[in-house]
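Changelog-adjacent note: as of this version, every example in the card shows the full chain rather than a window. The one below runs 113 residues end to end.
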Amino acid sequence: LQVQQPQQQFKKPQQQQMQDPPALLSLPTHTFELTPSPSTATPEGAEFEAMAREKRALKVKLKAFEDDFLSVHGRKPGKEDREHMKEMYNRYGSLRKTLRKRMASPADHDDDD
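Full-length structure tokens:
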């Protein structure tokens, strides 16, 4: 007498619908209080810090979008997939470039006395 094991059928999981971009952009972010350093005491230092905070916030939002897209579609988002986020990617790139230039250039000091 042989007992047949029932065959298990594995169903391919259905792809989830990706969340609307505005929902992704409202993900909670952590904020940290920074103590002003001597470099932030100047208007240029404060501006640099504000730009750095904005860049970090954009990076978190873009990373969340990319991670969510990957989990839903099983691949990284391509250029067409990122089109609706183009302004955010452009702003992030612009801030990144500006901050790098400012960090690379020497501070303006009058040492020629």
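Structural remarks: Residues 109-113 have pLDDT under 50 and may be disordered.
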